[in-house]
Specification:
Elements: E1 2-8, E2 13-14, E3 21-27, E4 39-45, E5 52-61, E6 75-77, E7 85-87, E8 92-94, E9 98-99, E10 108-114, E11 124-127, E12 132-138, E13 151-153, E14 156-158, E15 160-167
Antiparallel strand pairs: 1-15, 2-11, 3-10, 3-12, 4-8, 4-9, 4-15, 5-6, 5-7, 5-10, 11-14, 12-13
Length: 177
């Protein structure tokens, strides 16, 4: 039994202050492996100079149309059973495992809301990362399926450093586009 990487990003820079902002991190199918499992978890990374207050987070399959829309109601990520988590400066936190299935050949979408907490509103990011792009919008819009009004940041990763799937028998199954 083991957790296997689905996608990872070596986040290496601090974001600006991001209080009261929703992010949608899209990862193209070409950047995913080990997607054939039913239990998933996500690692979030706070900035090195200041922590982050994740007010809520979701995982789901991208809609076939719309860059940052969920295909259906997303699965909420929890942190020790809670919908929110305060991540200390320079730290990461891993969501609780959730039951989630990504259809073969589909893109992954993770949304998260950085709460309106000006002393905990910095996450790490990475620029120029193939198959990753994020979108952002003021306010709490993390659970919205058919979203509108987001700004695009192409080929960048924001706040999400690792997505994993659980293999009950420890066998790695590489499923790529």
């Amino acid at each position: 039994m083991s957790w296997l990487p689905v996608a990872s990003a070596a986040l290496d820079a601090n974001s600006a202050n991001l209080a009261n902002v929703t992010f949608r991190q899209r990862i193209e199918n070409a950047g995913l492996i080990n997607t054939g499992f039913a239990k998933w978890r996500v690692t979030f990374m706070a900035g090195s100079t200041e922590g982050a207050n994740i007010g809520k987070a979701y995982i789901g399959q991208c809609a076939d149309s719309g860059d940052y829309d969920f295909a259906a109601t997303p699965t909420q990520l929890l942190f020790s059973g809670n919908p929110n988590v305060l991540i200390g400066a320079g730290s990461t936190t891993i969501s609780d495992e959730v039951l989630f299935t990504l259809a073969s050949g589909k893109n992954l979408l993770i949304s998260f809301f950085v709460a309106n907490d000006i002393s905990h509103d910095i996450v790490k990011y990475k620029t120029t990362l193939a198959n990753w792009q994020y979108y952002f919008k003021a306010g709490d819009d993390a659970a919205t399926v058919d979203a509108t009004g987001y700004t695009t940041a192409t080929n960048d990763a924001m706040g999400v450093s690792l997505i994993e799937a659980f293999s009950p028998d420890g066998i790695q199954v590489i499923i790529m586009a």
